Amino acid sequence: MCGIVGVLGNHEVAPILVEALKRLEYRGYDSAGIATVNNGTLDRRRAVGKLVNLSDLLVHEPLAGKSGIGHTRWATHGAPSVTNAHPHMAGPVAVVHNGIIENFRELRAELAEAGFQFVTETDTETVALLTQMYMNAGAGPVEAAYQTLDRLQGAFALAFLFQGENDLIVAARKGSPLAIGHGHGEMFVGSDAIALAPLTDRITYLEEGDRAVVTRNSLEIHDANGALANRAIKTIQIDAARVDKAGHKHFMAKEIAEQPTVIGNALANYLTADGHIALPDPGVDFTAIDRLTLVACGTAYYACLTAKYWFEQIARIPVEVDVASEFRYREPPIPDRTLALFVSQSGETADTLAALRYCEGKAARILSVVNVPESSIARESDLALPIHAGIEVGVASTKAFTCQLTVLLMLALKAASDRGTLSEEALADHVSALRSLPALMTTALEQNKAMQNTARRLSEARDVLFLGRGLMYPLALEGALKLKEISYIHAEAYASGELKHGPIALIDKHVPVVVMAPRDTLFDKTVSNMQEVMARKGKVVLISDAAGLEEANEGVWASICMPTVHNAVAPILYALPAQLLAYHTAVAKGTDVDQPRNLAKSVTVE
Ligand code: F6R
């Protein structure tokens, strides 16, 4: 993960670097640092923990200069510490890095042999030392950086800054994204265009294997074969304003509350006035498709699991769903007429991107469902479907999940319509259910207090189980993931019917069991499983609608009443109590809700 920036500016660069790093802090917050060149002198400042610690340090120990690089870290090699924090310096060079140098052990051995000393436990230090070694041998800065890049294996986005060079950054991309921003007599480098948004909207995206020599007035790019490359400058539209919490205590609370609005936006972008699904050009013809492969990670994977039920039940298309990290190395056969679909909020998840690349040239079409339209996954797909969730800052995904679900359901409806598996009447029924979602979500959010009260009790648990059947099963998985990632309470989810095949042994009077069960055709079956839990003194939290609660509320530990909803869209609505229970439990426990420990928003390492 990690976020990197570089600025060749006309003003003092330290505050600009810090501001850009703020916009990249979603990539990691184990440490942060900047380096500048001031009248030819290279120097740096680094601090452990969140960016605010670096800002504090810079108040006491300012760093002058109009050229600089910066880094926010998600630790891979070496614990979070000042020593391991980037930029890494060796003699005349400073380096910031996102990714993993896979052959760093061999390189370290070679450097040790040549008499170089290591002060950090990181893989990145080898990059700085190699560059120093080549410069010691007489190479100029660009040549030394390029020679170093030739030696590196793994995935990286790198920026190099040099002693004595007030107007030079060397940047390189292999496996991790990197954008170059064009200003007026200024140039910028960033892990993404969002970091650069307040500085410029004119962006050149480096492609795989690209290396760039950046000065204030020029950009020279070489491709993976060393040939000069002509990469386009795109004008991008990103809201440059700093996203704020709009009066909420946390970004996560704000993003949960935004869901009626963003779901409305997603619907408006795909539904025509006469209730049909319109995809961006060139669209998809589902009669030319025999099967679907859905691939993603984490929450986006659970969105795919939910979509499997929709595509199979509504459009009668066989669906395979995989976590990207397994898919990419399993080398699965991809039969002709397979549509491969990748779901990712960030559009930069390394495993999902690698899985997409595996499908290139094998699948009939490559589609993606993304929140960041300029992301690598979007750019490398035949067709990218944006989810219109807006920037998601909270590390735990909330509104992106429900927008992913909404777009996936619309896609399943489009497939059903193309393949004639749904009557016009049934299609209209589903579309009207989708259109009812923003209002139903607003009603569901009014249950906030009930969820807060239940969460207070949940916060005392050591383990929590989630149960669901059918479309509620992937949601149970998502509920468990949300709870564990932000409250650090151990949580597991099971398909209700699986409980008695082993996990029921976990149940005793200390274990809350959250049961997601709208009053649908599977309700009675889920309630039977719930009774089995209560018979063993498990504490049931029943999330259902008025009809469901009237039938099955007796003896439960707590209940939450959802509005009555069409079966097909229920997982989108029931995501709200799953998110709010996790949120309030984390608040009750006093954890860092928006930036939970050990996590990062964009997972650009495998
Ligand atoms: C959990 C969460 C993660 C992401 C996963 C994939 O709340 O946010 O599990 O869903 O890391 O990220 P994207 O969607 O950016 O590919």
Automatic annotation (TrEMBL):
It is found in: Cytoplasm. Its main location: cytoplasm. GO terms for biological process: amino sugar biosynthetic process; carbohydrate metabolic process; fructose 6-phosphate metabolic process; protein N-linked glycosylation; UDP-N-acetylglucosamine metabolic process. SUPFAM superfamilies: N-terminal nucleophile aminohydrolases (Ntn hydrolases), SIS domain. Its EC number is 2.6.1.16. Keywords: Aminotransferase, Cytoplasm, Glutamine amidotransferase, Repeat, Transferase. Pfam families: GATase_6 (PF13522), SIS (PF01380). Gene3D superfamilies: Glucose-6-phosphate isomerase like protein, domain 1, Glutamine Phosphoribosylpyrophosphate, subunit 1, domain 1. Residues 2-217 form the Glutamine amidotransferase type-2 domain. GO terms for cellular component: cytosol. This is Glutamine--fructose-6-phosphate aminotransferase [isomerizing]. The lineage of its organism: Bacteria, Pseudomonadati, Pseudomonadota, Alphaproteobacteria, Rhodobacterales.
